[in-house]
């Protein structure tokens, strides 16, 4: 039996937990960081980072296929999955080592093992009792399945999809949200035949409808199949493959089925309810300052209802650390959090969709402008099509920016500033954008919405 006391105890060292620990230690608090797996959590080891490595490999495959268009003689001989794995693991290992070094350098005490909350100020890890003046819960999330659908064998989650040592010839993907379309995009670029099954009427269904429709056109053009507005009714598998039967009676046959139907909070059996934390369907309920119903006990990241994104968890971790250090940080508004769907094409958005803005302000109180990337020199050079849609309140600020096209994720920073700072298009329109960049397209969209369209 041993006992350790800290100013702050953090349970879970993913994006939310480690960010809280780093910032708190920087602000002079002693920190105990408890992790049962690897510091860095989902994002670093089985989420954001390794999937983007796969997408980069996919982009190179596509560029090689298209190389003649750019006057380069090259041909795609195939995908060497061992090489892809070595590249992916190399990136993850290097970032992991960097994070471990940073945690050590900041004087944070890492406690290895699975923790359980036994009081608002205590976490038990095996025979170690870890107490903190404050505790942050940051235990993250897991890949959900659906009732009647068991994960195993040829029915896999994103974690197993990352680890595949072959490129599937034919793959079915249940769920047309971010994770589903990301893997679909990679596999298609590597030569697989891909079919996505989505219960809602659109792929990337949380995006502005006009963007979802463009996305569907782009995926269709790439030869990715999808079945929208239909649910699976059963799945059978054998040594050869898997057969997914849909509610409408259709069947989809494939070598593998990726289940990408969202992520649930990893909170079961960790003592939260027993200690009296208010929960809702497994999520931890907090106030806007991320404190639970128990004073001094906080929660961050995917276990808090809202967008399950690494940068949200990260910012929430920083927020709570600053709160505890008495810095009175600014409350995080989920609506201003940028979202990027990494695929070919990319989708990036911040703020309200046109439909949500119409609900909030009244349809006659908003206007929107769609800028076609065909008018942007750099987009033409890199061979992408797409668009940038701005939504504004009449004679008021820009409340939403929605983009689709290659690399538009890199443009989200400026869009986020405009939306978060409630900028009027007239404020942003005079800013000069470097030529030729894709950023100029955003500049031109602001100009147009300010009533000064340059090329329209
Ligand atoms: P996690 O990162 O899940 O960390 C929780 C940590 O807590 C884990 O390390 C876990 O081992 C530990 N833990 C759990 N229970 C205990 C316990 N009892 N004791 C000790 N330790 C415990 N987000 C983006 O913003 N961009 C992306 O591109 C992106 N891509 C993604 C791709 C995929 C395939 C997936 C699955 C996710 C992706 N995400 C992305 C989401 C992102 O990974 C999560 O939002 C983020 O990791 C959440 O951070 P977190 O700190 O809440 O939880």
UniProtKB/TrEMBL annotation:
Record keywords, A-Z: Cytoplasm, Disulfide bond, FAD, Flavoprotein, NAD, Nucleotide-binding, Oxidoreductase, Redox-active center
Cofactor annotation remark: Binds 1 FAD per subunit.
Binding site for NAD(+): 175-182, 198, 262
Pfam family, one: Pyr_redox_dim
Binding site for FAD: 52, 115, 139-141, 302
Additional detail: The active site is a redox-active disulfide bond.
Signal peptide from the UniProt entry: none
Domain Pyridine nucleotide-disulphide oxidoreductase dimerisation: 337-445
Family to which this protein belongs: Belongs to the class-I pyridine nucleotide-disulfide oxidoreductase family.
GO biological process: 2-oxoglutarate metabolic process
Record protein name field: Dihydrolipoyl dehydrogenase
Catalytic residues (positions): 435 (proton acceptor)
Catalysis: reaction(s): N(6)-[(R)-dihydrolipoyl]-L-lysyl-[protein] + NAD(+) = N(6)-[(R)-lipoyl]-L-lysyl-[protein] + NADH + H(+)
Principal location: cytoplasm
Disulfide bonds listed in the record: 43-48
Top enzyme class: oxidoreductase
GO cellular component: a single term: cytoplasm
Molecular function (Gene Ontology), one example: dihydrolipoyl dehydrogenase (NADH) activity
Highest taxon of source: Bacteria
Enzyme Commission number(s) from the entry: 1.8.1.4
Subcellular location, record wording: Cytoplasm
Domain FAD/NAD(P)-binding residue range list: 6-317
